[in-house]
Amino acid sequence: MPAVSKGDGMRGLAVFISDIRNCKSKEAEIKRINKELANIRSKFKGDKALDGYSKKKYVCKLLFIFLLGHDIDFGHMEAVNLLSSNKYTEKQIGYLFISVLVNSNSELIRLINNAIKNDLSSRNPTFMCLALHCIANVGSREMAEAFASEIPRILVAGDTMDSVKQSAALCLLRLYKTSPDLVLMGEWTSRVVHLLNDQHMGVVTAAISLITCLSQKNPDEFKTCVSLAVSRLSRIVSSASTDLQDYTYYFVPAPWLSCKLLRLLQCYPPPEDGAVKGRLVECLETILNKAQEPPKSKKVQHSNAKNAILFEAISLIIHYDSEPNLLVRACNQLGQFLQHRETNLRYLALESMCTLASSEFSHEAVKTHIETVINALKTERDVSVRQRAADLLYAMCDRSNAKQIVAEMLSYLETADYSIREEMVLKVAILAEKYAVDYSWYVDTILNLIRIAGDYVSEEVWYRVIQIVINRDDVQGYAAKTVFEALQAPACHENMVKVGGYILGEFGNLIAGDPRSSPLVQFNLLHSKFHLCSVPTRALLLSAYIKFINLFPETKATIQEVLRCDSQIRNSDVELQQRAVEYLKLSSIASTDVLATVLEEMPPFPERESSILAKLKKKKGPGTVSVTDLEDSKREGGELNGGGERGPDTAAMASSNASTPSPSADLLGIRSAAPVGAAPASAGSLLVDVFSEAGPAAPSAAVNEDGFLRDLEQPTETCDSLLVEGSGDSDSAPPSEDPAPPLPEADELLNKFVCKNNGVLFENQLLQIGIKSEYRQNLGRMYLFYGNKTSVQFASFTTTVSYPGELQSHILFVQSCSCMFRNQYTSDNWDTACYSTSPIFAH
C-alpha cells in the first residue's frame, strides 16, 4: 500500500467528527448532522465542479454519518466517480463507500462493474487488490456473473503478484459460497491445486481455504491435493521455528497453515499411496511428540498454537480410524487434558474423546478414564463441560460398565442443570434398555428415573417400559410388585401413576395373592392418586378400573360406585364422561365371558426401532446419534423389544425357509407345491406346520394378469397346505405340465407372510392381497383381504382354505363380510361387498 502523503489528511472531516463527539444531547447531534447533510447536498448539486479531494472528503462524511445509524440516500454517484481516480486514497474511499452502502440491486452496479474491470486489467497490484476486496465485500450474484471467469485467471497467472493472488483466492472463495453454480473451475482445477506448492506462505494459506471449500463439494476433482497437502505439512512439521521466521508464531511454525492442511485432509479418506500415507503418519506422530515436549514459552499464545495443531491432528486420526497406535496415543494425550486447569481444553478433550469412544481400536483406552469423567460430571462448574462429560459417559458405555454409568448418571440427575435434564433422561433410558441383561434391573432403573426426574420423562420413555414389560412374561410380576411399592410414596409423579395404572391394570393379578397388595388395596392406592392427575392420566386410570373388574370380580361393586358418581358420569370433560358411562354400562350388562374377551390382556408389541433413540437423535441434531447406535440398539435390545418371546418360532421358520423352497407361491396360487409324500413337519411349532410345503402338487399358474384371474376361477384340489384360492370348477382347467417360473420377489413375500403381523402380500395391476394376524399364547387369528384394483367388479368371487385333516380339529374357519373390494377408478371409494377369510387355529 502506498504511503499517505501529509497533504492527504482531511481537516474538514476531523472537525465534523469532533463536533459530533462534543454534542451534549441526541437532538444536538441530529441537528449538526442535518446541517452537514444539507451542506454536502448543496456542494454536490452546485454549479462548481468538485475536485477529487473534496469528493473524497464529503463521501467520507456521508460514510461516517451512515455508521452513526442514519440513512444516506445520495452521494452514490460521487463515490462511483472516485473509482476512476488514479489516486489511491480517493479510489480507496470510493470502494469503501460502495462496499458498505451500495445495494446489490442498485442501478449503479453496471457502472461499478465497469470500473472494477478497468482496475483488474490495469495490472496495478494496489488497484487490483482494491477491486478484488470490493467484489468479495459485495459478493452479489451480479458480480459473480461478471467476474467468476476472470478471477481464476488472475489467480493462476504467472506474472500476478503474491498479494494479488491472496486477494484473488479469498475473493473467489467468497463468490463460491454465495453463487456456487457460477464459479466453475474446470480447466483451472489442477493449477489451483498446485498453488499448495507456491513459495509464498501467504498464497498457500489463502489458496488452501479455497481448495478446502471446493473439495467439500467436489472431492473427486480435487483429490490430487492430498499428496501436495501431505508434502507441505511434512515440510512445516519437520522445520524449526527459525526456518519460517516470517510465519512463526511464538515458536510454532505456521500454526494457521498447519491447521488448515490438517482440516483439508479430513475431506478425504486415508491416502492409497503407501509412501504418502507413511509420510502422513510420520507427520501425525511428530505432532503428538511435539505436544509432549516442554513448552518453549510460558505465554498462553504458545500453548494455544500448539494445542490448535494437536487437536486438528487428533481429529484427522479419528477421521481415518485406521491406525490403532495413533488412536490410542491420541486418547492418552486427550486424557492428560481432562484435568487441565484450562476449561476450554477440558471441554475440547471431552468432545474429542466422545468421537474416539466409537472406534473399536480406542474404545478400551477411553474406558480407562471413566473415573476422571465421572468426577468431571460431578465437580465441573461449567454446565457445557458437564454436558460433554455426560456425552462421553454415554459414548463409552458397554455391557461391562453399563450399571456403573447408569447409576452415576441417575445420581447426577438429582442435581443436574435443568437445561440438560431431558437429554440425560433419554440417555439413561437408552442405556438401560440397550445393555439390560436383567429385566428387573431395567424396570428398577426406569422407575427410579421417573421418581428422580419425572417432569423430564417424555412419553416415549414410559411407553417403552410398558412395551417391554408386556413383551416379557418373566418380568411382569416383578414390574407389578415394584410399581405397586413405588406408588405408595407420599409424593408420586404423574408419570409413575401412568405406569402404575397400566401395569397393575394388566398384571395386578400376579401380586394379588399377597394380602398387602390385594385387589382392593391396589384399587384404593390407584384411586388415591386420581384427583391429583391430569385428564389423560385420569382416562388411563378409568381404563385400569374396568380392567380390575375383569381381573378381580370382587372389586366390581366398589368400582361401579366410583364410575356411577356424578364427578365421573357428569364430568365436564367429554372423554372422561364417555369412558365412565361406557365402562359402567359394560360392567353392568356384559357377561363374564364377554367382559374377558373385551378386556383381555394386551398382545405383545411388534418389534420396532426404539422411539427414545429417534427422540434423542431429533433433539441432538443430525449425525449425533450414529447409525451404529441404532443398529446396536436393534441387535442388543431386540429381546427387550418383544422379539424374545417369539424367538424359537422365528428361528424354526428361518430354518424351514433355508431348507425348503419359498411357499409364498402356494399362498398366492402361482407355483406348484411340494411333491406328494413329503414328510410333514413336526408339530413342535404350529406356525411351521401351517406354512410347511408338504402336500400334493398344485397346478402352475400363469404369472400374467389374465392367468392370475383364470386361476382364481379354477382352483385345484389340495389338502395339505394352507392355500387361498378362488372357488370354481376344478376340472375346467387341467394342470399345466411345466411349473410356472417363480416370482422374483417370492422370498420377500414369504418373509412378509411369516414375519409380519400385517401388510401387503401380493399386488399387481388387478388385485391386491393383504394379511392381518394376531397371536396370543396358543391361539392365533388370521385375516386375508382382497382388493380389486380394476374399474370393473369381480363377480362370484369366493375363497376357500385347504388344510391337512389332522389340523381340521384345531382350525376354525370363519367367513365374514368385513372386507370390501376397493375400486380405485370409480367415484365411490368401496365397491362390492365380499368375504374375507379368517382361519382361527390353536394347539
UniProtKB/TrEMBL annotation:
The entry's keywords: Coated pit, Endocytosis, Membrane, Protein transport, Transport
Membrane topology: Peripheral membrane protein
Residues where a 1,2-diacyl-sn-glycero-3-phospho-(1D-myo-inositol-3,4,5-trisphosphate) binds: 11-12, 43, 53, 57-61
CC per GO annotation: AP-2 adaptor complex
A GO MF term: clathrin adaptor activity
Major subcellular location class: membrane
Gene Ontology BP term (one): intracellular protein transport
Low complexity: bias regions: 650-665
Disordered, as annotated region: 622-666, 721-745
Clathrin adaptor alpha/beta/gamma-adaptin appendage Ig-like subdomain domain mapped to chain residues: 751-842
Record localization: Membrane, Coated pit
A matching Pfam family: Alpha_adaptinC2
Family in the record: Belongs to the adaptor complexes large subunit family.
Protein name: Clathrin adaptor alpha/beta/gamma-adaptin appendage Ig-like subdomain domain-containing protein
Organism field: Pogonophryne albipinna
